[in-house]
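Can't attach files on this board, so I'm pasting raw text. These are the components:
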Amino acid sequence: MAARTPRPLSGFPELLPEERVVEEHVVDVLREVFELHGFAGVETRAVEPLSVLLRKGEIDKEVYAVRRLAEVAEEGATDAEGSEDVLALHYDLTVPFARYVLENAGRLSFPFRRYQIQKVWRGERPQEGRFREFRQADVDVVDAGSLAPHHEAELPQVMADVFARLPLPPVVMQVNNRRLVEGFYRGLGLADPAAVMREVDKLDKVSPARVRASLVDGVGLGERDADACLRLATLTGEPGSTAFVEGVRAIGVRHELLEQGLDELAAVVASTGSVGSGERFRVVADLSVTRGLDYYTGTVYEARMTGFEHLGSVCSGGRYDALADDGRTTYPGVGLSLGVTRTLLPLLQRGLLRASRPTPTAVLVAVTDEEHRAASSAAASALRARGVATEVAPSAAKFGKQIRFADRRSIPFVWFLQEDGSSEVKDIRSGEQVAADPASWLPPAEDARPAVTWTGEPPA
Amino acid sequence: MAARTPRPLSGFPELLPEERVVEEHVVDVLREVFELHGFAGVETRAVEPLSVLLRKGEIDKEVYAVRRLAEVAEEGATDAEGSEDVLALHYDLTVPFARYVLENAGRLSFPFRRYQIQKVWRGERPQEGRFREFRQADVDVVDAGSLAPHHEAELPQVMADVFARLPLPPVVMQVNNRRLVEGFYRGLGLADPAAVMREVDKLDKVSPARVRASLVDGVGLGERDADACLRLATLTGEPGSTAFVEGVRAIGVRHELLEQGLDELAAVVASTGSVGSGERFRVVADLSVTRGLDYYTGTVYEARMTGFEHLGSVCSGGRYDALADDGRTTYPGVGLSLGVTRTLLPLLQRGLLRASRPTPTAVLVAVTDEEHRAASSAAASALRARGVATEVAPSAAKFGKQIRFADRRSIPFVWFLQEDGSSEVKDIRSGEQVAADPASWLPPAEDARPAVTWTGEPPA
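---
Top answer:
Structure tokens for the assembled complex are below.
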């Protein structure tokens, strides 16, 4: 047998059990908060027809095509791209959700609130914070015909509630409005607003001077227009502050679409001023944000973790008015997507997030000898019946060895059956051992489940 | 825009929100029980190198190959099968887990107990209970070097605890032992035991007479050997009963491996006699069970739901001694895999399992007019802070319309803010409306979350 140790696949991260405890905790909190806000859980299949995926985005080369091996062998794959029924792994959860809404519109109640926590796949070059397989957690509100604007202020509140329950760095969510930006560019009379947006979108990585140079030399803008675009893109605000409106007006560009965008953004910023109550989650206007994917039409969001800005946005989204349309009805929506893997992996790799143990087990029931394993199993069943995660020692080794077995896994308690049928439980951290009844004993609440904690210095 | 209503993909089932509530409940129970038994959650990437998958099973034609679209376009796929680094979607969770154990052996504590609940993909022809994308829930215990046999009796207990908490039909788990069967065939001196096993494996679909004919005419067995094989395969037992041992001995075949298998199976059956406590989950010896996949070496399990036997096994597994081997150490294991999709979809499609509502929302806070939406949001926040799933009405329509909005989703309570700042809550089922304080009111426990119930007649 060709035995060997397999190596990890670059871009397809897997977690050790203690890291997975952290991820499970985060996913539990996400789900709990989403459900508290009345979002229904939806899951879509992992694959979509290639035609559905390519219609929406510009990232065709990053898509993973999926074919039965038998098919590949029979037909070759040269016609893979042309064929209507070629399947591909979804690269986000918004496009599949839009398809799901169209497919099931008659059986859903609108406005429809859904959350969706799933893996997605992109064939990008792996680097820190960028993976080929990763988990996203999305919330969206979709309505039939028209969507009330207050949902655009509601979603940041949902994410603020998520982050308030997680031991993560503080988050700043930047909000902008695509209509505002497009209206501004139209007001300037620019020929190719999309090209300008692409350059301005680099402001989080490239200096304003270089972006200005690209606008003039690359896109062909006049100096004054380039300056106006940069003045717009460098406007930011404080939570709740709509001072940016005056900032935009001061540039002197006028356009109907710009006015509409300004009103919309001002409304979102004004009603999210108190979101997050404090420094842990702040929502601010930032007029540089445009989002790469082309389906956003109004409000756009990006959020970064303080001290980890180099990871890029960990939570983004926006309003899309035309993503789902079946020819009779349009289903506009607004959504936010949290990059679970992007948020957690860098923190786990730096040892900043830790689980108190790599197993759910709170109690190990010792086995005196193999003939009495059934008695240990009965005690374990009694503990489980009251919600105590319990396993039975795998072998009737010396008690010292059984205690070390628990210690290696940070299992806090070891349970001993006495010859007279009574029991004792030892806290192996303190060494304290006391009489206990499996029908009534409970561990302290903080030991019942693995705890997840931030172990680093809080970033500035 | 080419707008149209998309159609479902055959074999890739998706659930409506109310059906997904049922599935989420089942997955929650699986996870809860697995964790109570001290299994750690592990998740593996969706893809494996094709070489890893093909080495283990015989199902190469059912595997989905995965390639970046860019790669397909550049290279064609004619060399897809030959290339070392071609990726494919995993078709079960056992092979990826064995690879995970080898890859991380130095960072795991053995015996290692893990559960894994994920989607898997097989390019099979879709039919009832058989899908191309479906969810499995696996529990395995893997040790380094040797694995104690008591784990083979432990796993049925874990699954019995799962089924005890779910509103599903009664389950019969059949247990057999591969060594027993192989030893029996060797004792008979059969030339091709695998060919015999394949025919015998059809006994759940084909009559004994036809299996006998295939053994004689197809495999070339003598009449007496065919009869002996059939006598073995039709031996079954009652929970806890090892009477099958005498039944096997009466056939008169002797072989060392047969004796070992008999001892092992008798031990598992004897110590699972009281599992499931009653008619809801029974573990019995059934000597026809062999399992198709070739990595099982000892105990094998299959479980069927009473009244839904035509779905085939909904929970199966076994002991594998040689699946994971890095050249220095072998990691034997034993596992059980529950087919979540296979179990639930047929019951959902028949309307036998229902959720009480398609949304987590327990309370809808009415909005008097859009100017006072913030007051409704504040009441909703106060309710959520104490764990009550709450959403705010999407529009300040007439109250009758807001109540109908809740009713359409079976949201049980609507919350009204009074002009004097007080609140009232209406149970829209009874019509009763009472004064309530968002800082202290709680819904009855049975309304807090959607309930999942069996709505059909219990099958005989």
